[in-house]
Amino acid sequence: MNIPIDEKLIPQILTMLAQLCATGVIFIMYKKYMHEPVMKFLDARAEKMQSDLAAAEVLKQESLELREKAKKEHESVVSGAKALELQMLEGAKKERQSIIDSAQDSIDAQRKRLEDDFKQERQDLYSEVSSKMVGLAVDVNRKVLHDVNFDHDSMIKDIEKAMANHD
Asked: Which bin fits 150, alpha (ψ -120 to 50), beta or left (φ > 0)?
């Protein structure tokens, strides 16, 4: 089996010339009829791509500006919220302190009332006990002295004796 490799690798001259003529005809027709519209299309496409790139760059800049603006607004809202929180805490502390002060005033007033009531009750009890003691002493003296006969002379001597011992 003998395969002619030369014929397979190197084409024949007539075939090569025919292909070159066909390519030349295609080139001439392209140059005459197609070159200008293709170039216009490619130029238009390049311009469109440039305008799209420019628009994309503008949109990118706008997006960055919006992002910065949103970031600043977010920071201002957060700082406002913190300020409001601090203000609310301060108000709550003041309210708490006023409630505590009011309760303390109420406690002090009630304590004063209770002390006054206690003093009055002690005074009333003291008066009542004193009057009961006097009454009891009078009753005891009556019972004790009921059956006793008094000797005025001996009483005077006893008083003189008690006074002499007292000096």
From this structure: beta
Give SS3 for 98.
helix
Give the tens place of pLDDT for each residue, 32-68. Answer: 999 999 999 999 999 999 999 999 999 999 999 999 9
CA dihedral 66, 71, 73, 76 (to 10 degrees): -160
pTM: 0.40
Residues in the chain: 167
CA distance 118 to 124: 10
CB proximity list for 26: less than 8 A, separation 6 or greater? none
DSSP string, 17-38: HHHHHHHHHHHHHIIIIIHHHH
Alpha carbons 154 and 16: distance in angstroms, whole number: 183
130-166: per-residue pLDDT in tens? Answer: 888 888 888 887 777 776 666 777 778 888 888 888 7
